[in-house]
Each structure stands twice: as structure tokens, then as C-alpha cells.
């Protein structure tokens, strides 16, 4: 793992790297302090992607704008401080724009300058407006472990409220007569990576209004679901997932972001079989919204994986997978 000190505060362990200047930092506060100019430059380069990826309703935008207004006021105070932090330089025009922003009574998106819009959408996407409630996936919520997530089984012995109308999981013997390939565990990682990426990308809000875009994203991210990719090992799987996301400007955020998604995969696997089933059931439900022939084929693949996973009753099976992923991620961290 990376144990370098934060280049800004020089106290904590650095967890992140600035995509613009490669300075290593530990927190949002240190990121904001390291260079205002660098931060704004990054906002400007990222805006086209961020505008496409920001799925924000009117109420959330209003709250975010109020937060942006507050942060603008804090920024002005910091800049006008007699002992400003090094690197916090701003032009006269930018200062005027910030003051206008702070004094506006009923702020809207149209009141922002071009650079402010860029900063706003990027900050919203990356969770830098701390007053806004950020989407937190179910696998990162410690309270989820208090209640076992039970998938409705073929015998109907285990049931729970089923708002998404998940299909029953059929025995694997109903689908195939031969022994399943030992390589399926590599493909499972691909599918879970796709699920976690989609959930974060759309803030967990997948419905009729964005179903076509979601399906296109699934097809781009997953080599298993988008085509018929079969992996020979975990390294090959992780490499393919990274390349697939890098190749799509509509999906790609950063390599660091993609690696974070693999840590999501590890989290889901650590929670055990029922939670892995939940992820695949939800992904299958997303795809069921489409209703096309191509989506039906993808849905059949997931139906098979549900039956296969449902018969994996050994904890060691899931441990072996997530430990292999963690080992690869640690190696990647050392190279960064």
C-alpha cells in the first residue's frame, strides 16, 4: 500500500493524487488548499464528462447551489485573509464573480459564470459540496449487516418484500447438465464491477427514464455481458474492466475511480453469498426494464450466474476471490 505523507499538511498518510499536478494529498481540505489555480484548471478539463454524468434533480440542484454559495463566501474570506494560504490566488474578475454569487438572493444555474458552472457540476459529482447528502451504496453501509438480505428461493422458504419483482432462482441443473467452468469466478468479478460502477454512476437511481443509457453503459463496462468475454485469471479480468471504462468518454472518470470500484467489489464479496445474489438480481432487474432481444440475452446470462452463485455455500469460495483481488489492488497501489 502507499504510505507516503500528504504533500500539503505533511501529517497524514496520502490517499489521493491530484489528476492535474500529481500532488499527493490526504483529504478534501488539503486538496482545496494545495492550489486554487490547479483545482479550477481540473474543473475546466472535466466539465464535459461531468455534465453528462450529473444526475441531479431540481431539489438537489437547489441545495447544491445554496452550498456553492456558502462555499464561495468561505473562499472570499480565505482570499481576503491577511495571511492567505500559499497558492490561493484569484483574479479581480473572478473575485467580482464570486461576490456577485454570494450576494444573489435566489441563486439558479443561469446565474453562474461558465467557470462556476464547471466547478459546480464537478464539485457536485465528486462530492466536494459537503452540505449535500452524497449517495452511499448499500454495501458501504455498516447497518446493512444487521439484517440479512434474503433472496427468494425456488422452494419459497426464504422470502422478503420484493418491490423490484425479482425472479426466483432456479437450480443450476435446470440450466446445464455438465459441470460449470472453474473460470466462472473471473467472470463474476467482471459482473460485480459493472454493477458497482453503474450504481455509483447513476447514484443508485435506475428507472424507465434512463434505462437505455444504463443498458448501453452495462454493455460498455462488462466484457461478459456486453459480449462473450471469458477470462483465464483475475489479472486479465481487472485489466479488461479498466480498459473498457477507459475507452468510453461517457463512462470514464479516472483510473483511481475505477480502482475504487474494485474495492466495492471486494466489499460485496466479503458480505457473502446473499449480498452477491442481491447485486446480480438488481443488475438483472435493471436489464429487464429494456425488453429488447439483446437485453433478454444478457438477462439469461445473469439468470445462469444467479443459479451458479446460489449453489456456492462455502465461505472459502468468496474469500479466495476477494483476497485475489486485494492482492492485485495492493500491487497496483504500489506502482501508483
TrEMBL record:
<dbReference type="GO" id="GO:0008270">
    <property type="term" value="F:zinc ion binding"/>
</dbReference>
<keyword id="KW-0862">Zinc</keyword>
<keyword id="KW-0863">Zinc-finger</keyword>
<dbReference type="InterPro" id="IPR039646">
    <property type="entry name" value="ZNHIT2"/>
</dbReference>
<dbReference type="Pfam" id="PF04925">
    <property type="entry name" value="SHQ1"/>
</dbReference>
<keyword id="KW-0479">Metal-binding</keyword>
<feature type="domain" description="HIT-type">
    <location>
        <begin position="6"/>
        <end position="38"/>
    </location>
</feature>
<dbReference type="Pfam" id="PF04438">
    <property type="entry name" value="zf-HIT"/>
</dbReference>
<dbReference type="InterPro" id="IPR007009">
    <property type="entry name" value="Shq1_C"/>
</dbReference>
<dbReference type="InterPro" id="IPR007529">
    <property type="entry name" value="Znf_HIT"/>
</dbReference>
<protein>
    <submittedName>
        <fullName>Zinc finger hit domain containing protein 2 protein fon -related</fullName>
    </submittedName>
</protein>
